[in-house]
């Protein structure tokens, strides 16, 4: 009889937990963690490409030391950050460092336009293609993570899940801040050889009026 009562209590408890959204909270929380791991993985992939890119550019443009140093320092700063995605301040610091690295990298790619021999180097072209693909993956991973966090936060703030979340210590997660939401869907431009604007045809001056 006692065993039967215990079994019934377990069944009732399981139904109650399921009905209050506990299981769904666990699933969404794990989805957010997996999404964050993918974001970090793609950022790391970009960081791993940078040393080879810097070395390749340096072989053709040693005089561009300032730009090369900026990229190297920005990459080192990113590597020193111990990010906690559940801490808004830590996430903001991580995002700022990644933004600085992206800006330094963009300046390096712009400088590379001045060296035709470098642009024709096969190793440089391969790195360019890998970097472009990585930027696209970062954009996709960030976009998915933003959606996952929004879904999680909306869910735990809804009734009756909000009660369950408070009982078990689940709170809203911080998210990436994007000044321009179009950045989520548009990766940074890293292509070379952008066509120059066509020169406007010169117009002949109007004839002088007859005297």
Which helices and strands, and how do they pair?
Elements lengths: L1 H18 L2 H39 L4 H16 L7 H25 L3 H4 L2 H35 L4 H7 L14 H4 L26
Helix pairs in contact: 2-3, 2-4, 2-6, 3-4
Helix/strand-derived category reads: mainly alpha
User: Which runs of at least 5 residues are low in confidence (pLDDT < 50)?
Assistant: 180-211
Number of helices: 8
Coarse morphology: elongated
Topology pattern, helix = H, strand = E: HHHHHHHH
Helix content: over 70%
Give the averaged pLDDT, no decimals.
82
Question: How many strands, what sense, and barrel or not for the largest sheet?
Answer: none
Please report which band the strand proportion falls in: under 5%, 5-15%, 15-25%, 25-35%, 35-45% or over 45%: under 5%
**Strands, total number:** 0
Taking the alpha carbons of the first and last residues, their distance comes to: 123 Å
The Cα radius of gyration reads 27 Å
Task: Give a description of the structure.
This protein is mainly alpha-helical. The protein contains eight helices and no strands. The N and C termini lie far apart (123 Å).
């Amino acid at each position: 009889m006692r065993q039967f009562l215990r079994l019934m209590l377990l069944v009732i408890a399981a139904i109650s937990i399921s009905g209050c959204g506990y299981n769904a909270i666990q699933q969404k929380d794990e989805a957010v963690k997996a999404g964050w791991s993918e974001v970090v993985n793609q950022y790391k992939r970009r960081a791993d490409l940078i040393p080879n890119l810097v070395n390749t550019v340096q072989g053709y443009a040693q005089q561009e030391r300032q730009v090369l140093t900026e990229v190297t320092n920005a990459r080192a700063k990113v590597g020193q950050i111990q990010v906690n995605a559940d801490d808004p301040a830590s996430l903001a610091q991580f995002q700022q460092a990644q933004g600085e690295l992206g800006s330094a990298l963009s300046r390096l790619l712009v400088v590379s336009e001045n060296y035709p021999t470098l642009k024709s180097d096969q190793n440089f072209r391969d790195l360019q293609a890998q970097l472009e693909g990585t930027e696209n993956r970062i954009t996709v991973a960030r976009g998915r993570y933003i959606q996952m966090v929004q879904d999680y936060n909306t869910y735990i703030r809804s009734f009756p899940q909000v009660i369950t979340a408070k009982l078990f210590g689940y709170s809203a997660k911080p998210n990436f801040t994007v000044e321009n939401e179009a950045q989520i869907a548009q990766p940074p431009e890293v292509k070379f050889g952008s066509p120059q604007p066509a020169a406007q045809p010169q117009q002949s001056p109007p004839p002088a009026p007859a005297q």
